[in-house]
Design goal:
Order of helices and strands: EEHEHEHEHHEHEHEHEHEHEEH
Structural class: alpha/beta
Radius of gyration: 21 Å
Strand order of the largest sheet: 8-7-6-9-10-11-12
CATH topology of the largest domain: Rossmann fold
Number of strands: 12
Number of domains: 2
CATH superfamily of the largest domain: NAD(P)-binding Rossmann-like Domain
Largest sheet: 7 strands, parallel
CATH class of the largest domain: Alpha Beta
Shape: globular
Helix content: 25-40%
Oligomer: single chain
Number of helices: 11
């Protein structure tokens, strides 16, 4: 049997080598999932591979009558209705490891951009102004980084920031003392991390426990000179509260790569907030990361469809 694979959302085809090179899989790509071509291909597809743009909701899943597997070339599954897929017996796979370095490096880039006002200085110079004294920043060396979450990405951020001479404190109820010792970080409760950190970087999934974890109360506990960085998931930061804290000078600055609603709405309070760096969800936007997540999810799908190995499926326990 040949399995038909439909790819969309500009997934890196160069990373799908586990699904090419033989007659077991036939891969087709339709970049616009709102197009008629996509709808036609979907009806016959056994596999659907997406990034974050396509909303794989119940209607889409029900319309794919032969669907056996969904691959999310990335970490988050916000755009995939895992429950609806499970009801249909469709295995869902993601790629939590492929973009780790890209996301960690972007986080450090956001920290530096906020600390040194790099985007604002660039805009100023392009507007033919020379305002050196307007962009006096702070150094990372000797500062304290507070991580909210220290899994794969948070751990890599810790290593890189230690190279800058930063101390790292962590709030993560799932991090063991042994792992903390390996990373050279100090475990603390949330209030201690917020009070001590000069930079607070968030690295958690979006769920009922983490939604709005960085809200008005958390912001009020930070130093007035603190910076907030979020390159994890939109929704873990209360955007209205952050904008207010920046306007009121409660914190020194912030940098965000992810948002509650994407693309960022025109009327978002973030657009007018001072000392704020905004990037359009670039965490996994490197050549290496895009190939990595595509390969990771492709390997899992191949193992599932050729040998029945569903252990890597996020819904493996519920497939029956």
């Amino acid at each position: 049997m040949t399995f038909r694979v439909l790819v969309t959302d500009e997934v890196a085809l160069s990373g799908l080598t586990p699904l090419t090179g033989d007659d077991v899989f036939r891969v087709s790509s339709v970049e616009d999932s709102a197009s008629d071509d996509f709808a036609v291909e979907l009806i016959a597809a056994h596999v659907l591979i997406v990034r974050s743009t396509t909303k794989v909701d119940r209607d889409l899943i029900d319309g794919a009558v032969d669907l056996r597997a969904i691959g999310r070339a990335g970490v988050g599954l916000d755009n995939v209705d895992v429950g609806a897929a499970t009801e249909r017996g469709v295995a869902v796979f993601n790629a939590p490891g492929g973009n780790t370095i890209a996301a960690a490096e972007l986080t450090v880039g956001l920290m530096l951009s906020a600390a040194r006002s790099i985007p604002a200085a660039d805009r100023s110079l392009r507007e033919k102004r020379w305002e050196r004294t307007s962009f006096r920043g702070v150094e990372l060396k000797g500062r304290t980084l507070g991580l909210i979450g220290a899994g794969r990405i948070g751990g890599e951020v810790a290593v890189r920031c230690q190279a800058f001479g930063m101390d790292v404190v962590v709030y993560d109820p799932y991090l063991t003392e042994e792992r903390a010792a390996e990373l050279g970080v100090v475990l603390m409760d949330m209030d201690e991390v917020l009070a001590r950190a000069d930079f607070v970087s968030i690295h958690v999934p979006l769920n009922d426990e983490t939604r709005g974890i960085c809200g008005a109360e958390a912001l009020s506990r930070m130093k007035s000179g603190a910076y907030v960085v979020n390159a994890s998931r939109g929704g873990v930061v209360d955007e209205a509260a952050l904008a207010k804290a920046l306007h009121d000078g409660e914190i020194a600055g912030a940098a965000l790569d992810v948002y509650e609603t994407e693309p960022l709405p025109d009327g978002s309070p973030l657009r007018d907030a001072p000392n704020l760096v905004l990037t359009p969800h670039l965490g996994a936007s490197t050549v290496e990361a895009q190939e990595g997540v595509a390969t990771e999810v492709a390997e899992k799908i191949r193992a599932f469809l050729t040998s029945g190995d569903r252990s890597a499926a996020v819904n493996a326990a519920d497939l029956g």
